[in-house]
Amino acid sequence: MDQQEFEKIIKDSSDLSSMDFRGIKLKDLDLSELDLRYACFTNSKLENVNFKNCNLGAVDFSYCDASNVTFFSVDLRWSVFENSNLIDLKFEKISGLESNFQNSTIENVNFISADIRRCKFQNSKFIQVDFLESNLAQCVFYGSEKVQVNYHDSNLFNVNF
After folding, report:
1. How many other CB atoms are found less than 10 A from the CB of residue 7?
2. How far is it, in rounded angstroms, from Cα 110 to Cα 93?
3. Fold observed for domain 3-150
4. Taking the domains of the chain in order of start, what are their residue ranges?
5. pLDDT of residue 159
6. What percent of the chain has pLDDT over 90?
7. Beta-sheet strands, E only, within the chain
8. Using CA atoms, how far apart are residues 161 and 131, in angstroms rounded to an integer?
9. Mind listing the pLDDT tens digit for each residue in 23-76?
10. Residues 144/122, Cβ–Cβ less than 8 Å
């Protein structure tokens, strides 16, 4: 599926739950107000994409290359970003309970007022990452590299570094 086919689908329906968008390349898109629960974006490339007020629960973003992507006020619970390259992203006011970011590169990313309790960040590489007023309780960071990571006013209860 290409971006043109994807844009046609989102014009026709806001419920795209469980759809398979594996390997898709999306650029310069506003994907606000969509229901993408359980969708698959494995091996996809996302550039300058905006997810606002979306349901992205249990979405699979594994092996994804994402740059300049914003997740604002979205449900990301149980989503998977494993083995992904996440560059210049913003996660603001998200619910990301138990999401999986293992083995990923996370560079110049901001988590702002994000509820990301019990997330898995094992063996990931963090470069210039800010966690601002976020809930990281019981997150796991074992084996991760961290360069310029800040936890401003964040809940670090029982975090495993």
Report:
1. 12
2. 11
3. Pectate Lyase C-like (2.160.20)
4. 3-150
5. 98
6. 99
7. 25-30, 45-52, 65-67, 70-72, 85-87, 90-92, 105-112, 125-132, 145-150
8. 15
9. 999 999 999 999 999 999 999 999 999 999 999 999 999 999 999 999 999 999
10. yes
